[in-house]
Write a structure and sequence with these properties.
Largest sheet: 6 strands, mixed
GO molecular function, one term: RNA binding
Shape: elongated
GO cellular component, one term: Sec62/Sec63 complex
Keywords: Chaperone, Endoplasmic reticulum, Membrane, Protein transport, Transmembrane, Transmembrane helix, Transport
CATH superfamily of one domain: Sec63 N-terminal domain-like domain
Radius of gyration: 42 Å
Main location: endoplasmic reticulum
Helix content: 40-55%
CATH topology of one domain: Sec63 N-terminal domain-like fold
Subcellular location: Endoplasmic reticulum membrane
């Protein structure tokens, strides 16, 4: 490739373009993601001021002592980057001004087509001003002036400029590299090679190796794969597992072992403090000889979990720090346990493992999560989750008039009744209690079950795939407050909700009735001649799109053929003397056919709209899944949990009678206001009425679980036709003699066919 040459940037102009693009690519997304977003600290009006919450706030601040310094350094770094970007952009704009298109007429200040005398006159005038020896001289401007003068006075240079835009003629093609030339200079080669070696031979392999080593040891939820294997082993070994044993397995997680986790701290004081703590705890089963349940790290973690659930005060400089670290890891590990049990249930259904894990096992795993978050045992009163309330205050919640056992019941009381129960509290303490209660969740369930992509979605046949759509509506507990104003407002909302729900149910019932009606084309088939092979085959069970489509075509053909049949009927009636009666009957029949046809078109249009709505819903759900699941919902009041906890929920379907799990638990992590979940399972193989339960469990609060029963009337599955409708149509076509169909039209009567057959017989005899 002659005339081509590669060169580095001598002046540094193109390098500034490269630097400008590089800084913009880094700063624009970096500012959005890395700029410290200081969360507005909740004022005293909105947050709890109990002693436990104050300790947690102090603990969170002490865990990040350099948080303010890091935020300040990050802001200064981002601001410095933007300042550099602005300076580079200004430099580039100057380059654009200096290296603008070369126009000799504009430089000399003469119009296009000026004579040589005018050009020389303008050149002399400007030379006296721009010459470097003059006081007003400018070397760069004088060089441009000289070049413009030469371009217009020299005939060859003028032709080159007019033809190529350059007085020197066409230039050779050159490829520039947007890097300064000092990179390839000999005296800088050692430093450049050293930098390349440091980045590409040391830093990059190290980062990739660390990432790979971590990725092969952890699952997607950052749980050690060896821990997951241990969970599978114990849950497969013990299909029905008590809560106490679930705690033992959780404490044996390898995340709490110094050998597998470098963040674990082992102190010399553990030899004295851990045995002393074990003596304070009963039923710890520290003498269990199962591996790894008997290891020292497992016994220590189990003792710390028992101390956390019993709210035992620990040494803040040693065991309490270990407790905080273990408790922070527990929600992720419990979610992994739930996933493991779900996988074992699926394997048991597939008959790959002999034992099916009991539903008590997975529910005990779920039950353990709110126990850890709230720092209390399951047999304790849920009212202990509220601030300032202790075991001594619980006696005031039970009396002859009322017996308050849950937070929901307490919230539904009137203000004076609640204040009477907590009369020993100060006004500030009572306000804190009501703030916490008002922010707690109140979940409403809307459950709908159907068989999707079926002609009648409300009919459940044996072995059908049942889809249960559960809509979770999250409200604050303050909506249940028994104050007069709030109560009236809540009753209005409930009434309007019930009325709206009733209207929706009526619409749904009307739609189901329309769907369950027999299509028009099935009714029209009954009017055909009986005994013919084609009509008998058309009366097979409908359920396949091809058969339905062909039947609809036949119905439309029958409607189109109605006028000709009416004319034939009128002629026959005229011959017998009953013309008026025959015509009236035919008109009535044609009107019925038209009504049925219009009704069939209306039903089919509504079916199309319904299918389109379902399709759009599926697309939106698929896009939501592709976008990723959020982890932000509502903060939990959890003073004994060392980190900020968000509200998460599990939802699944179970058979309470057989104690089995029908669907894998779905983890809802973004329930801010509403969330819709679809759960699918296979209907029982035997006909009958079955009752299944939709369960919603909280991973953050005790006593907030809900259940909703659904009844399925399972019918016997229809027999699958031995012959396909398409094949039946093909058989009919093959049985017809060749050449007959071409001579006969759809308006031909049976008498015409008989006459034609007689004529053929006579012709053959002749």
């Amino acid at each position: 490739m002659g005339g081509q040459k590669f060169q580095y940037d001598e002046s540094g102009g193109t390098f500034f373009y490269f630097l400008l693009s590089f800084l913009a690519l880094l700063l624009i997304p970096g500012t959005y993601y890395w700029w410290p977003h200081n969360r507005k600290e909740e004022t005293t009006v909105n947050e709890c001021q109990c002693d436990d919450c104050k300790k947690k706030k102090f603990l969170l601040r002490s865990n990040e002592p350099w948080k303010g310094t890091k935020h300040l350094f990050t802001k200064l770094l981002i601001i410095s980057g933007w300042l550099i970007l602005i300076l580079v952009a200004y430099k580039v704009s100057q380059f654009d001004y200096e290296y603008a298109n070369f126009d000799p007429y504009e430089i000399l200040g003469v119009p296009l087509g000026s004579s040589q005398a005018e050009i020389k006159k303008s050149y002399r005038k400007l030379s006296l001003i721009l010459h470097p020896d003059k006081e007003t001289g400018n070397e760069k401007a004088f060089m441009k002036l000289t070049k413009a003068y030469q371009a217009l006075t020299d005939d060859e240079a003028r032709r080159n400029w007019e033809k190529y835009g350059n007085p020197d003629g066409p230039g050779a093609m050159s490829f520039g590299i947007a890097l300064p030339s000092w990179i390839v200079e000999k005296e800088n080669s050692v430093w450049v090679l050293g930098l390349y070696a440091l980045v590409f031979m040391v830093a990059l392999p190290t980062v990739v190796g660390m990432w790979w080593y971590k990725s092969i040891r952890y699952s997607g939820d950052q749980v050690l794969l060896e821990t997951t294997q241990m969970y599978y082993f114990f849950f497969h070994k013990t299909p029905s597992m008590a809560l106490k044993r679930v705690i033992m397995i959780l404490a044996a997680s390898l995340e709490f072992s110094k050998k597998h986790n470098g963040e674990i701290v082992e102190r010399q004081t553990d030899a004295e403090e851990v045995p002393h703590l074990i003596k304070q705890i009963s039923n710890l089963s520290e003498k269990n000889q199962e591996r790894p349940l008997c290891f020292a790290y497992s016994v220590k973690a189990r003792a710390l979990l028992y101390a956390h659930l019993s709210r035992i005060t620990l040494n803040p400089n040693s065991l309490d720090k270990d407790r905080q670290y273990i408790v922070k890891k527990c929600p992720y590990l419990i979610q992994e346990m739930v996933n493991c049990v779900s996988q074992l249930v699926l394997l048991a259904y597939a008959r790959r493992i002999p034992h099916l894990p009991n539903i008590d096992t997975i529910e005990n795993c779920m039950k353990l999560s709110p126990m850890i978050v709230q720092g209390m045992w399951e047999f304790k009163s849920p009212l202990l989750q509220l601030p300032y309330i202790t075991d001594e205050n619980l006696k005031y919640f039970s009396s002859k008039k009322r017996h308050i056992k849950s937070i929901q019941q307490f919230a539904q009381l009137k203000n004076e009744d609640r204040r009477h129960i907590l009369q020993s509290f100060s006004n500030e303490q009572y306000e804190d209690v009501m703030k916490v209660v008002g922010k707690m969740p109140y979940i409403e369930l809307q459950v709908r079950s159907e068989v999707i992509d079926d002609e009648n979605p409300t009919v459940y046949t044996a072995g059908a795939i049942v889809t249960v759509t559960v809509k979770l509506i999250r409200q604050n507990m303050s909506d249940l407050f028994g104050d007069d104003s709030v109560t009236d407002k809540h009753e209005q909302q409930v009434a309007s909700g019930f009325s709206k729900l009733g209207e929706d149910e009526e619409k749904e019932e009307d739609r189901k009735e329309e769907l369950t009606k027999k299509p028009v084309w099935q009714k029209q088939q009954k009017k055909g001649k009986k005994g013919t092979k084609k009509n008998i085959k058309n009366q097979k069970p409908v359920g396949r799109p091809i058969a339905a489509k062909k039947s609809e075509d036949k119905a439309s053909n029958a409607v189109e053929a109605a006028p000709s049949k009416q004319e034939g009927g009128r002629k026959a009636a005229a011959d017998t003397g009953d013309e008026s009666e025959g015509s009236d009957d035919d008109v009535e029949r044609s009107d019925d056919d038209e009504d049925q046809h219009s009704q069939g078109e209306k039903v089919s249009a509504e079916d199309d709209d319904t299918e389109w709505e379902k399709f759009q819903t599926r697309l939106s759900k698929r896009e939501k899944v592709l976008e990723g699941r959020s982890k932000q919902s509502h903060s939990v009041h959890s003073p004994f949990y060392p980190e900020d906890k968000q509200e998460y929920w599990w939802i699944y379907i179970s058979d309470r009678k057989s104690r089995t799990l029908l669907t894998s638990p779905y983890h809802v992590t973004a329930l801010v206001e509403e969330e819709e979940v679809q759960l699918k399972f296979t209907a029982p193989r035997w006909p009958g009425v079955y009752t299944f339960t939709v369960c919603v469990r909280s991973d953050s609060y005790l006593g907030f679980d809900q259940t909703h029963d659904i009844k399925l009337d399972v019918k016997e599955a229809a027999e699958v036709p031995t012959e396909h409708p398409q094949w039946d149509m093909l058989d009919d076509e093959e049985e017809e003699p060749e050449g007959d169909g071409s001579d006969l039209s759809e308006f031909t009567t049976d008498e015409d066919v008989e006459e034609e057959q007689e004529d053929k017989v006579v012709f053959r005899t002749k």
